[in-house]
């Protein structure tokens, strides 16, 4: 009898352990699937996440889109999914997400939902005034780089007001409402309207909210060269005055998948998605 109940207990113990092991692998397995779903076309991302490096340079053997998405995944937690409004925004404004300059912070997602969320993000930025201005704030690293460019050659802000630099959610919204309305927003969200993105950013989506963009009056190659040498590039197609601080030299941009496109003599560095 004693021996029998001992056997029974042992049998229950083994059954219990087997169930635990089975549950463990089921959970790990399903996590794996969820985690990999957005990244199906990039076999390299898993390797990269387990061996973080600073700065992060994606595997150069994969194509531009995969290099870009691997970099973005490394930088922000929520990678937008194809065929969503967020993905459209990532395509239009996401070039800045390759920035890895120490001291620069990036938004956790491509849309800041309201003024409060914008202020929360901006309160974590280390900002400073662009030299010679009283209201043009940028993230400090971006401002320092711009000041360096301006030590080489004179470059004017577009309007001279704070709107050229870091904006509040309200200013982003005000600019949007000057050019567009809720109908336009719907069309952008559905992927039916994209040209407006080169004119004005929808509410909560401007690179100007992130303290890494400037609107400038640039008219000659020397100015362009000084800006490029200091990590500033044009990254929003057809938004001529708009400059973005990427923090890399021009030769490095393709490593992260950015593609150059020349439109009417102006070279833009665009996302490859
Ligand atoms: Zn701008």
TrEMBL record:
Q: Where is the D-alanyl-D-alanine carboxypeptidase-like core domain?
A: 152-231
Give the keywords, sorted. Carboxypeptidase, Hydrolase, Protease
**Membrane spanning segments where?**
none
Q: Write down the superkingdom of origin.
A: Bacteria
**GO MF annotation: an example:** carboxypeptidase activity
- State the CDD domains in the record: Peptidase_M15
GO annotation (BP), single: proteolysis
**UniProt xrefs under SUPFAM superfamilies:** Hedgehog/DD-peptidase
Which is one Pfam family of this protein?
VanY
What is this protein's record name? D-alanyl-D-alanine carboxypeptidase family protein
